[in-house]
Amino acid sequence: MSSIEKITTFTTELNADTTEWCPIADYSDLFVCGTYQLNETEKTSKFNQESVQRIGYLYLFQICEENVGFIRLLQKLSMPGILDCKWFRMKIEEHIFLAVVNAVGELRILELLKNGNEPYLNEVQLIKVTTESNTLLLSLDCSCAITNNDVKIIVSNSAGEVTLISYKDGSFVVDDCWKLHQFEAWIVAFNYWNTNVFFSGGDDCKLHCFDIRVGRTTISNTTHTAGVTSMQMSPKQENTLVSGSYDEKILLWDIRNMKIPINSLDVGGGVWRLKWESKMGHEICASCMYFGSVVVNESNTEIIAEYKEHKSINYGIDWSLLSEEKIYQNLNIDKCEDFKCNLITVCSFYDNLLSLALVKIPKEST
């Protein structure tokens, strides 16, 4: 039987809503956690009214051996409230980039560097994606999961827009912007196998497939009955997409025929994040808001393990890319011959909680 076992927890200073593991070899023991919180205590002297300030921290952590507490905080960066972040899955001209979107319309690019043996993040570019003061950037995705040719970022916002940003001559530049959803565009995801195509999901219950080459939506699907909040293309299986929604359903798609999904699963909570396991690609982890977090087997689209450590809204979740050997070494546990093991991090909002957990899946089930 599969299981998810808590290893340790960390309390963040502000509300935690996103976590991402570094996918680059030699740095796969690193992960980040982003936070977002409304600070409504400040008064503006000009209008003598309450001013809403959206604040956040970006934490950089490293997995370490048991005798020093499993995770080590390397860095804490103050910035506007963070809604999403993504590591580039490949080096770009030898750079290791992390992209962050925030509540004041900014895309920030940070580079992972080293001071001696100590990794740290350094901001290298800030792009003002929108000048509308009330527009939040909600999600992003980077194109380079299969190849690092023609590097692009897509960003979605609370006005229902998706913005394309390209990497040209050593920097990132805004290329185009499209109004794709009537309400919030909660999620965007590249087709990693054809990065001229991306998918977007919005609060209008629509899932769009958009082709950059022709500048228009080529497929629009309304199978989800509530806002489409999560989505990711499989980095291991071409043509396979997973989506999630406030309707509490996870849908699996073959993008060659999106009239009906391949399979559907009701998980009992709004599905805020979905992540494919990147080493083998047979499992999906999902943060399901008030229901907790789950791991789903892709082949039969069933929940194989649940994680209920977080009592508040589960927003962030991601898989480690550490080798099993490194996991056993860092956790100081014996090798599980009958199981494949991986780590996940999960973070939740109002309880300001980040946790590290061990996922064990029987080898015969994979």
TrEMBL record:
Task: Give a GO biological-process term.
Answer: protein histidyl modification to diphthamide
Ranges of the WD repeats in the UniProt entry: 221-263
Q: Which UniProt keywords apply?
A: Hydrolase, Repeat, WD repeat
What is one cellular component GO term in this UniProt entry? cytoplasm
Does the record bear Repeat in its keywords?
yes
Care to name a GO molecular-function term for this sequence?
diphthine methylesterase activity
Q: Which catalysed reactions does the entry list for this protein?
A: diphthine methyl ester-[translation elongation factor 2] + H2O = diphthine-[translation elongation factor 2] + methanol + H(+)
What pathway, per the record?
Answer: Protein modification; peptidyl-diphthamide biosynthesis
| Keyword DNA-binding assigned | no
Which InterPro entries does the record associate with it? Diphthine_MTase, WD40/YVTN_repeat-like_dom_sf, WD40_repeat_CS, WD40_repeat_dom_sf, WD40_rpt
Task: Report the Pfam families cross-referenced here.
Answer: WD40
Q: What is its EC number?
A: 3.1.1.97
Which family is this protein grouped under?
Belongs to the DPH7 family.
Q: What is this protein called?
A: methylated diphthine methylhydrolase
**Organism annotation:** Rhynocoris fuscipes
